[in-house]
Structure formats: structure tokens, C-alpha cells
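REQUEST FORM: STRUCTURE PREDICTION
Request ID: SP-0412
Submitted by: Lab K.M.
Chain count: 1
Length (residues): 476
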Amino acid sequence: MNIGYPVYGNSEWDGYHYSCGSDEDAPNLFLAGGASWSYDYDFAHSRIGTGVFIPKLDQGTGVFHPKLELVEKTKQESNPVNPDRVEQERYLGDPNRVAQKCNLANASRVDQESNTSSLDSLPDELQELVLTFLPLSSIIGSSCVCKKSKQIVLSGKLRINSAERLSKPWYFMFKNFDDPLGNIYDPLQRHWYDFKFPFTIKHTWKFAASSGLICMMEETDCNFEIYICNPMTRKHIKLEKHLGAPESTYSSLAFSVNKPSNAYTIAIVRSWQAQESFTHWNTSIHIYNSEKMMWLSPFVETLSGWRAGCDSIIVDGALYFVVTKIGLTNCHALLRYNLDNSSHNCNLIKTLTPIPFSLTCVRLMYLQNRIVMVGGLGSHDVPEKIGIWQLKGAEWEEVSWVPDTFFQGFGEIDDVFASSGAGDLIYIQAYGSTSVLIFDMKSEVWKWCQKRPLCRRYALELFSGFCFEPRLDISP
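STATUS: Completed
RESULT:
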């Protein structure tokens, strides 16, 4: 007998009606077209009892009216009774036990999430190891997450193992207004970050950096106020020095950290005109040793025809400083003073190394075990080109010139510009612009820093900056 049945149950078929015939004597179902399927073989078990079957595509489609005894038998064979499942269903049927089960599940989930999302459950050594794999900017940011992370970051024990990160100095830019606020540039992430020093930065200060520490000096009358700071950990100390001598007309600051011991040396070069002659200038050198925690006796010498106070660096126990020819503002030379010269019996003028260029804004740097000099070459004290040289013996060797396209990117460059270097990088910045140019000494490639988020708002607003090596494992 042919009977028509609609599609029903869990099927999403589109409601067509088919006819099928049933054989009362055999556990098989037949389509009206005569094709047959074995019940146990061709029907999906999940559809048993719903009135829907899923036949093979090459046999057509249809509906069936299953035999109840076959359905029950198939259910028993495909879904055998599981005592644990029966007990679970009873358990879930009890509202009190359901609530208890939910509370336990939520507590377990909270514990699991807290253990997987927090570093507090790890030992300090493992937490430090995890942080060393993060970018330095992320490490600094992690100090704001919780007290434990802040303690690890500021402890001074966290060492950055990546040599690449250690060789890429950051650049701090600030305005010509007395303010602790500024911006720091990370060359690896190519991103500017807002940054605040733990004290007010003055644009009249002199800056020098070495191995993660920054030395900042302000001269007032015959007194020096000096700050030694690690900007990453914000730890700093303040030194004061009363010179008891005439106020200097020119001065420079040099700073060097001994990496094995983290002891540092500060050198201040002062210069003022002698009373007896216009061409004679007194030069004094003041040295501070952090291991002895004392200022050494100053060295004083009168130079004829030269004055000091442009710029200075410390290299391998010797102080190198730039002197300027009297009457020729762009004629410079280099002098050297041994820091361990306890007898003070030396003649500075005998160490003079001429600089065969008429330069402005001369800056000395120590990069890749070489003394490097950056200066502007031009006329009327306005640089038309900016060049880089390195000292080999007593000769200055040309390294590179700022390409014209990059030089024009500064806009209207003033007669002064800032430059500083560490690791492999040299940063150059015009005082009247926020644009910062980078030269990689290793690859000899020029490139701009990512555009700074702030811009020049006022005509008299100037910008300056300096670079430093970011470190977390050193304190002043």
C-alpha cells in the first residue's frame, strides 16, 4: 500500500511530499521507484524516530514511516544505557545540586583563568625570564600592571639579553621650556612614547649619557648641580659642586660608565678668559669618581690662542675635548687629558690634533670603538651640509654626508642643531623642527624617525634632545 507522508521532525527539507511503500514482512523500506535501503546501514542514527532518512545521493530522496520495534531496537544498539549518564541526568534534574555544580564550575574556571592570565603564580626567576623576551617598551609598560611586575622591573636585576636591543639607543626629545615632559623614540618599534622625567628638565642643561645612565649638569654662578639618572627605572641622585673660582664662560660635560663595575666618571671642562691677555684662556678640568665618591683635585692650565668648552667625551681613561681658535669661531682642534694623571704635569697643547674643517655645532661621540665627530659645514655660521668623520690616528677620515634630500627635510635649519650617538646610531635634529634623522654606522644608511606626534606650535618654540642606551640593570 502506498502512503504519502510529509517531511517532519528535525529535518530542514523544504516540505515536498513523497510516497513510499512499506514491506510488513521485512525490515526494509522501499521508495515508490523500487530502490531499497537497508535500515541499519543507510539511515543516520541521529534521525531515527524522527521520520527522516538520509539516503545515498544516487538513489533519490524520500520519507519513511519507521517500524517502532526497529526504532527501539536500533536505539538500544546505538545508544547503550550508561549508568553514569543516568546518574548525571538525575543529578542535573535536582535544582539544589545543579546550583552547587554551577558554583564549583565557576570557581574552577576563575582559578584556571587567574592562573593562566597572571604571572604572580610563577617564581620570580621565571617571571624575569618571561619579561626578557618582550620588547623593552612592553617591559616598561608591564611595570604598571601590578606591584610584582613593577618590583621586578625596578629591581635592577632584569637584564636584556638581546644584543640588538642593547645596540639601539633611544632618543629623548624635549621643548625649550622647563618641563619634565618629553617624548622618547624607540628605533626598533619605530614609535614615539610620552615620557616624564622624575625632575624638571631645563633646556640650558648639558647632557651626557653612557651605558644606560644620563648625566645632566646645570651651572649657576660658581656652582654645579648634577643629576645622575636611569630614565627607565627613574632612579636618580643629585650631586653639587662648589668650584670657588670665577664663573666660566664656556663649559662642557663628559660622562663614562665602567661596564664591569658600573662605576662612573664625570669630567667637567671649564674655560674663562685670563685677565692679562685676550688670547689667553684659563682651562680647568674637574673629575668625579663614583667609586671614591669624591671630586679629585682640579687640573688648571692656561692655553694661548685656544679656548675650551665646546664638547668632550671620555674614552679608555682619557678625556678628549674640543677647543676653538681665538678669533676663528669655526676653527677647532682636539686635546687629550689622561684621567689618571695624578701629578698634573702635562702640557695640553702638545696633544693637539687639528680638525681640518671649518665646522659649526661640533659634537664628539664614541661609536664602535671609534671617536666620531659630527659637524655642520657652511658659511656665515649657517650649515649647508652636515658631515660625519672618524678619527684614525691623528687624521680625520670622512664617513658620510647627510644626503641633500634628507637635509632639505629639516626645513629652514638654524645655525645650530643637536646631534648625539650611541651603539650603532647617530641622531641629528634641527632645533627648530621635530624631525629627527638617524644614521646607522653599521649599515651606513640614513632614515627618518617615525613622525613625532607633536608639532611646532609657536615661532619661538625650539626642540632639542639626546640619545641614551636603555637599560634596567644599572643604578646611579
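NOTES: The chain is about 15% helix and 45% strand.
Reviewed by: T.R.
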